[in-house]
Amino acid sequence: MPFLGTLKQEFSFIKGNYAVLIASWIMIDFASELPATYYGLYVLKLGATTTILGIIGLSQFLALASMQFPGGYLADKYGRKWLISTMTFGVALSFILYAVAPSWPFILVGAVLMATFNSTYQPALNAMISDSLPAKRRGMGFSIVMLIASASTTPSPAVAGVLRAYFGLVDGMRIGYGIVVALFLAAAFLRLFLLKETVVNASRPRLHEIIQSYPTALKESFAVWKKVPKSMLYLFLSFSIATFGFSSTNLFVVIYATRVLLIDEILWAFIIAIIPITTIIFAIPVGKSVDKFRRKIPLLVSMLIFGLAIWIFIYGDLTKIIVSLILLGAGSVMMNASFGALQADLTPKEQRGKVSGFTNFANYIIMALGSALGGFLYEHVSPQAPFMMAIVAVLPSFLLTLVLVKEPKEKEE
User: DSSP characters for 353-376?
Assistant: First the structure.
């Protein structure tokens, strides 16, 4: 009984909006990861090249960037709930194009629509998470987000592998995207009916107000950097550099693994599940260490882990690939928990939507360029080139964080 009491106290912050978001993430993360297992191969099968795949990534990330400024501004001015719930419905319906696509241009249109809806509510979502977590529990809170996401995505690659084995690549992916649409709609209804607004006197803007808000949102999102500590700016710059490197490889991992390293496609679905399994194992201890000690140390360690993992993957056999994916899972937990907690510590509550909107906007632009450059390098230079670029990006990111990012003495509530 004392153990149960301790356990209950340890996780007492999992309630209200945070609990609703976790429940919806279980459905969304399982759905998202299912077709992601073979996404690159699916798009190539629909007639694309790796350069076109990179251009689709470019378009998707530009669309993700497009609404970050008004999304952050609207989240702070009009509230979080309506943005989160209504835009989740839009994301759900966008995936229909993925399911029925006869050729890669349909994927391009679906990616742009999905990303536009997604970008509109992301700042509100990030702000609501920060609003719902007590300052002393943020490391644990962001780690549990990773834990829940990983637990729900662990079976996804295996399900994708079974669909691939029984129905083939294209039909298996179509079925997978059908599952995505259904689960996203379920999550949207859950958010619509159960989330509670965290902004006082929030109201729902009309369409013309959203359009008219863009110039103001743009101005205030840039001005927000005068209202937050310099360390938040350096943290943003550091994370952006690392993001550029990683984004150059994301779309091409499955292609490189199956076509260069000659890993069987069905086997790959089970190998890739190592990442969420590793995340589950590390989530709680990493979250507790981020809360108990410093935020910056695991952030720095995660960067080094990512660089090492990519190096091992480039020249990997089956054993090295497994080691590489274990490292990627551990690094993901460290980076997400420490970055999320440190950003919340450094940002006042009333500025979190705008800070989140600006950082998301800039990082999606960076990811767009990284994806396009990665596709070009993969096709026209060498398959290893984008991965080497990701390793090189780790060094300046590490040094910037080490030297210029300072943890606050008093954490923002």
Answer: HHHHHHHHHHHHHHHHHHHHHHHH
Residues, the chain:
413
CA-wise closest residue to 106 among 184, 161, 188, 177: 177
Residue among 188, 56, 42, 216 at smallest CA distance from 117: 188
- Give the pLDDT confidence of 92-116 residue by residue, as tens digits: 999 999 999 999 999 999 999 999 9
Q: Are 179 and 31 within 8 A, CB to CB? A: yes
- Asked whether the beta carbons of 359 and 236 are under 8 A apart, the reply is yes
Count how many domains the chain has: 1
- The residues near 315 (Cβ < 8 Å, ≥ 6 apart) are none
The answer to whether residue 129 scores a pLDDT higher than 80 is no
What is the average pLDDT score of the chain? 83
- Asked if 18 contacts 140 with a C-beta cutoff of 8 angstroms, the reply is no
Q: What does the alpha-carbon distance between residue 379 and residue 387 come to, in Å, rounded to a whole number?
A: 13
pLDDT range class, residue 172, cuts 50, 70, 90: very high
CA angle (311, 151, 165) in 5-degree steps = 75
Q: What is the mean pLDDT of residues 37-41?
A: 92
**Residue 307 within any structural domain of the chain:** yes
CA 79 to chain centroid, in Å, comes to 22
410, part of any domain: no
Q: At what angle do helices 352-380 and 207-223 cross, to 10 degrees?
A: 90
CATH code, 321: 1.20.1250.20
Exposure letters 107-143 (e unless 16+ CB within 10 A, then b): bbebbbbbbbbbbbbbbbbbbbbbbbbeeebbbbbbb
Distance CA 298, CA 67 (A): 31
Q: Is 2 part of any domain?
A: no
pTM above 0.90, yes or no: no
> In this structure, is residue 29 part of a structural domain?
yes
Domain that holds residue 116: 15-197+208-404
User: How far is CA 410 from each of CA 99, 141, 208, 300, rounded to the nearest angstrom?
Assistant: 49, 19, 40, 21
Alpha-helical segments (H) within 248-317? 253-259, 265-271, 274-292, 296-314
